[in-house]
Specification:
- It contains three helices and no strands.
- The protein is mainly α.
- It has one domain.
- It is rod-shaped.
């Protein structure tokens, strides 16, 4: 209570017109400044949201591309395994003997060697 008694009271005669003009000009400038600030903040926040959304969209597209490439790789590996299995079946001794018999080949009666050091 003692503090309020120490504050002097001033009475300044202010006309109604000057009071309105002072309040209006101050409030209008504050409103304009606050509106600019508000619009700036809204613009920055909106821009950030759009940037984050576009980054997420790009990452999602890359994830789909990566999944597609993985599927292609798995399909190629499966095809390679099937080809290797087919080649192994064709290279088995039984299959080679059957293919040779189809072509008219017969097993040799005796083993003979070719000597390349002598001229015919």
């Amino acid at each position: 209570m003692a503090i309020t008694t120490l504050i002097p009271s001033f009475e300044i005669p202010i006309s109604r017109r000057s009071l309105l003009s002072l309040v209006n000009s101050r409030q209008i400038s504050e409103r304009v400044n606050s509106r600019r600030f508000l619009f700036t903040i809204v613009f920055v926040v909106t821009l950030n949201i759009l940037i984050v959304a576009s980054i997420n969209i790009l990452m999602t597209q890359d994830a789909f591309t990566l999944q597609h490439l993985k599927n292609q790789r798995n399909l190629t590996l499966d095809q390679r395994d099937a080809i290797v299995k087919l080649v192994d079946q064709k290279n088995s001794p039984d299959q080679l003997a059957a293919a040779a018999a189809k072509m008219g080949m017969v097993p040799a009666g005796s083993i003979s060697y070719i000597d390349m050091s002598t001229k015919p």
